[in-house]
Amino acid sequence: MRILAIESSCDETAAAVVEDGRHVLSSVIASQVESHKIYGGVVPEIASRMHAECISKVVRQSLDEADAPLDTLDAIAVTAAPGLIGALLVGVNFAKGLSFSSGLPLVPVHHLRGHIAANYIAHAGLEPPFLCLVVSGGNSHIVEVLDYTKMRIVGRTRDDAAGEAYDKTARALGLPYPGGLHLDKLAEQGDAHAYTFPEPRVTGSPYDFSFSGLKTAVINTIHNASQKGEQLNRADIAASLRRRVTEMLVSRTIAAADELGYRKIAMAGGVSANSELRRAMNKACEDSGRALYIPPLSLCGDNAAMIGAQGCFEFAAGHIAPLSLNASATMDISHEFNFA
Ligand code: KG4
């Protein structure tokens, strides 16, 4: 089964051709990072306009690189939710147009399911069921991947996502966008025990997260020091925050795996590129005799290959959309696109 996949949920316009959910024949990514950098974050209107400008070229290039004319494809997969609505609409409308003109079935894909599917590309032997920590710029979830298209949320953030906490504190530390990556690099030079930041817990929901209070505590520390004219060691702040976020993510994931009996753990999303999180989860899994699956760094950020991988499984499950498909800024990962 051969799928063309399109991704435009945030600031990357991407297209890929993927075979059988595991083999990437081409993967093209046009990143907008340079255009948003001067604003310190993604500007939605600019993102939509840039997607519209380059989506045709990106799709054309992915088909050419895969040597896959449209008549060799089985379906067109597209990220339909969640994300920036204007950005999503560019990909969804392009995919609808191509589906109409080519007659190929249209397969909507949940962006976070795509992040999880990056693991199928990277790890040939990985099959559900497994437990997955999904950590990106907009979401932090612990998800039971019961089957390729059946998911259940075990824990979720009650406020900010882990990536958002990293990005906002990185900005307060004067680091460039995208903040999480730069904060991670700076943290490598710092003392992770220099500051003890709070660990918020959600009463009665042991696997839920809350990062908003932690983010505020760090930003207050930075502002208080600057108001008093005190010099702060930015690397120590970055390392201490990273330690706290990592402890929260790893401890809850392992506790959930203990309770639910999972021996296989995966990670997915942009924050799964974090070096301390990769080290700590690796150690926790080794100590508890579990198998850990993490995508390579090249598949942690947004890309269309992962959408193609998940698209294959959604297509196989019969999740084909009518041309009235709409994009959605929010959507639960457990939602199944079932139009039957
Ligand atoms: O999954 P992603 O590329 O986009 C969304 O779907 O949200 O995730 C982007 C997030 C941003 O918050 C970015 O700062 C964070 O992933 N990120 C990192 C690292 N690389 C990217 N956070 C911590 N450490 C990193 N190395």
| Overall strand count | 10
Based on helices, strands and strand pairing, what is the structural class?
A: alpha/beta
Beta-strand fraction estimate: 15-25%
- Average pLDDT over all residues: 96
Show unreliable segments. none
Bound molecules: 5'-O-[(R)-(carboxyoxy)(hydroxy)phosphoryl]adenosine
Q: What is the string of helix and strand elements?
A: EEEHHEHEHEEEHHHHEHEHH
Question: Any descriptors?
Answer:
globular, binds 5'-O-[(R)-(carboxyoxy)(hydroxy)phosphoryl]adenosine, 340 residues, five-stranded mixed beta sheet, 10 strands, single chain, 19% strand, alpha/beta
Report on the structure:
The protein is α/β, with parallel strands linked by helices. 44% of the residues lie in helices and 19% in strands. The protein has 11 helices and 10 strands. A 5-stranded mixed sheet has the order 3-2-1-4-5, with helices on both faces. The protein has a 5-stranded mixed sheet with strand order 8-7-6-9-10, with helices on both faces. α5 packs across α6, α5 packs parallel to α7 (212-227) and α6 crosses α8 (234-260). The longest helix is centred in the last third of the chain and has 27 residues, at 234-260. The protein starts with a strand and ends in a 24-residue tail after the last helix. The mean pLDDT is 96. 5'-O-[(R)-(carboxyoxy)(hydroxy)phosphoryl]adenosine binds at residues 10, 111, 115, 136-138, 163, 166-167, 178-181, 184, 269-271, 273-274, 301-302.
